[in-house]
Amino acid sequence: MNVEKTGRRLFGSGRCSSLSGSPGAAPMVHRMVEAMSQLQEEKAQLQEELVALRERLALCDSNQQGTSTQLQNQVENLKEKLISQAQEVSRLRSELGGTDLEKHRDLLMVENERLRQEMRRCEAELQELQELQAKPATPCPGCEHSQESAQLRNRLSQLQLEVAENKGMLSELNLEVQQKTDRLAEVELRLKDCLAEKAQEEERLSRRLRDSHETIASLRAQSPPVKYIIKTVEVESSKTKQALSECQARNQHLQEQVAMQRQVLKEMEQQLQSSHQLTAQLRAQIAMYESELERAHGQMLEEMQSLEEDKNRAIEEAFARAQVEMKAVHENLAGVRTNLLTLQPALRTLTNDYNGLKRQVRGFPLLLQEALRSVKAEIGQAIEEVNSSNQELLRKYRRELQLRKKCHNELVRLKGNIRVIARVRPVTKEDGEGPEATNAVTFDSDDDSIIHLLHKGKPVSFELDKVFSPQASQQDVFQEVQALITSCIDGFNVCIFAYGQTGAGKTYTMEGTPENPGINQRALQLLFSEVQEKASDWEYTITVSAAEIYNEALRDLLGKEPQEKLEIRLCPDGSGQLYVPGLTEFQVRSVDDINKVFEFGHTNRTTEFTNLNEHSSRSHALLIVTVRGVDGSTGLRTTGKLNLVDLAGSERVGKSGAEGNRLREAQHINKSLSALGDVIAALRSRQGHVPFRNSKLTYLLQDSLSGDSKTLMVVQVSPVEKNTSETLYSLKFAERVRSVELGPGSRRAELGSWSSQEHLEWEPACQTPQPTARAHSAPSSGTSSRPGSIRRKLQPSGKSRPVPV
Ligand code: ADP
Ligand code: MG
Question: Which InterPro entries match (predicted)?
């Protein structure tokens, strides 16, 4: 730019100087000559200077030419270098540059992806294996497969761990690759920047070179004007001088330009040098990156290799295991196939059966409906038949029941409602020894109803309904009374008395011992078993009361206050039945319950009296068992009462001169036993009036003694000599009770049924017309031993009291 301006200035000034010359006079000529000479000198000087300048210019030119060629050469060199550098860079690029690295990275990524897929596949396989392992193992404890399976599981967990490690390593490598890729991109960017700088520098240099060329060209172009100026100077010195100065200025300027160019060149050289250094640095960096990349690549390859090996190993192991398992599965499959082959025919038959059944099932609802209809009709018919037969049976049953009762009544009528049996106890230690303890009782071997007593040397015989010898067991005696007890279930009232002197065995017969129980316990046991037998049709409840009559006072043995005297009252319902308000009644369901009741009653009696034996012989003990039944089918209700009475001793206490309490007791006992005898006699003779109210005992037992009730008296007999008097009285009482002749009025009454309501008020026993009875003498007196004959020969005795006091 400066060179251009300078060129124009020089050209312009040259043209002006040619126009500035002026003509002079003589002095003026002189001065002009002088001036001319001066000018000539100056001109010569200038010419010299010009020549020098020309030389210098030529030199400059040559210098400039040389410099320019040098510069051109340098530029060419630089261009070549740049080209080679670009080539080098492209080569480097192609070798290590972005493309290859990218390719390598891509390859790595592809490989990475492949590895990932491989890993996923391995994971899927592992998953399958885990599922296979998770499946319930076939129950073959202790077999080698379970061990192998455990090993495989361990190996699997190891492999899983290794896979996890490999994954970690892979992610690290990925990270490293990413970092290196980033660094490479950075280097590339820097390289690009350097290249751009270089290109700029190159452009700048080429521009300068072009400027230099232009300057040189302009300088060359300036040569003719200089020549013109010299010629002009030669003509016009002032002009020449001016031109000279201008030339000098120009020269100066050119020199400055050249210096500047040199400076620029120097700078360019320095820049070139620095760019060389930069290139070297870049190369070194590139080499370093190359080595780093190579190292990373090698490391990565190694890791990949090891990963590949691990993977291959794991795959091989998994494959081997899978093969083994596959083998086992194949074997199983073969077994299953053979099973299938064997099952197929069975399946075919089953399918056929199934189809057949299906067809049948389709038709089944219709068949079922038909069958149901016919079955319903049959069932209806059968129900009707059963109903009618049930009705018939029920009718028959009721008829039979009535018949049975009728028969029973007939039997009772034939047998007599009141039966008397005797039981002789064995001789005991208490009887002592000697003549008083000798046996005074004998029996008829042909007739078990006859008893012979040797009283004061005279034999006396008695006929009763049955006589039990001392050998008879409790069971034998019970068997005799059993029928009476069972009739209680059918709704009959029953009274069983034990009569006799103290020590004759009343309590033994009624209560017995724990080892050998008497009538009381056996009766209840029998009732339980009978009731259970009938339980399907009848529902029974059995209740028990225990009472004692002492000195005509009634006490409750099961009550909380046994001292309390109880009263006998008529039922307020107008039924005429008697009842004892406050008398405790226990429901018993088992033999245990009975034992508890007996125990309780016994304890009450024991605590009440100090001498139980003596007291018990002075009082009547009653066990009242009530059996209530309901027939489930007919709704028929029955109530039977069983009175088991252990009477007070019948011995004649008054005779021995008893006083006070003893006498009072004796009077009460005598009164009640007489009343009992009177009642029984009245009942047996079918009298219109039965004196029930004469004693508490008969009054209490009124409903169990009257009507179609049944009474049994067990007369207890002591066999020893010393008791023969009492034995004689007891047997007389028994026979009198039993052998009462039935009067004509009674016969009529026999046809009707007895009930407690029909009984009239009692008249004193002594005023009552007494039935006839007498004790008949021993066979020696001419009385027949046959019951019938004895009865026929009986005559009325006229005695009013059976038991003497
Ligand atoms: P009571 O009650 O009439 O006063 P007990 O029943 O107390 O008489 O009997 C008196 C004694 O005779 C008792 O020791 C009893 O064991 C005994 N005894 C009574 N009858 C028999 C018998 N049939 N067999 C064995 N011992 C008997
Ligand atoms: Mg007794």
Answer: Kinesin-like_fam, Kinesin_motor_CS, Kinesin_motor_dom, Kinesin_motor_dom_sf, P-loop_NTPase
559 carries a ligand binding annotation: no
User: What does pTM read for this prediction?
Assistant: 0.48
pLDDT tens track for 103-126: 666 777 787 788 778 778 877 876
Helices (H), 470-518: 474-489, 506-510
Instruction: Check residue 540 and give left, alpha or beta (phi > 0: left; psi -120 to 50: alpha).
Output: beta
Q: State yes or no: 504 annotated in a binding site.
A: yes
pLDDT at 272: 84
| Nearest alpha carbon to residue 694 among 646, 762, 648, 645 | 762
Q: How far is CA 14 from the centre of its chain?
A: 129
pLDDT value of position 511: 93
Tell me the per-residue pLDDT of 214-231, one tens digit each, with 9 for 90 and over: 887 887 776 555 555 555
* Contacts for 591 with CB less than 8 Å, ≥ 6 apart: 521, 524, 525, 528
Indicate the residue type of 640: G
Q: Residue 607 is inside which H or E element, if any?
A: helix 591-608
For the ranges 133-137, 139-143, 628-632, 766-770, which has the lowest average pLDDT? Answer: 766-770
**Beta pairing, strands 578-579 & 569-570:** antiparallel
Q: Which two tokens stand for residue 102?
A: 């990218």
Q: Phi and psi of 19, rounded to 5°?
A: -100, -10
Q: Is the CB of 505 under 6 A from ligand 1?
A: yes
pLDDT tens digit sequence for 233-259 = 556 567 767 777 887 787 888 888 888
Strand ranges for 394-457 from DSSP E? 418-424, 441-443, 450-455
- State how far the Cα of 585 lies from the Cα of 269, in Å rounded to an integer: 148
How far from each other are the two terminal CA atoms of the chain, in whole angstroms? 189
Q: Would the CB of 684 count as within 6 Å of ligand 1?
A: no
Query: 62 to each of 59, 217, 641, how far by Cα in Å?
Result: 5, 13, 176
Residue 655's CB: how many other CB atoms inside 10 A? 11
- Decide: 555 in ligand 1 pocket, CB within 6 A: no
500 annotated binding-site participant: yes
β 494-499/710-717 pair status: parallel
Give yes or no for a contact between 696 and 552, defined as CB atoms under 8 angstroms apart: yes
Token look-up 């009942």 returns 683
Among candidate residues 363, 285, 248, the one with its CA nearest the CA of residue 13 = 248
787/805 Cα distance (integer angstroms): 29
Q: Are 725 and 651 in contact (CB under 8 A)?
A: no
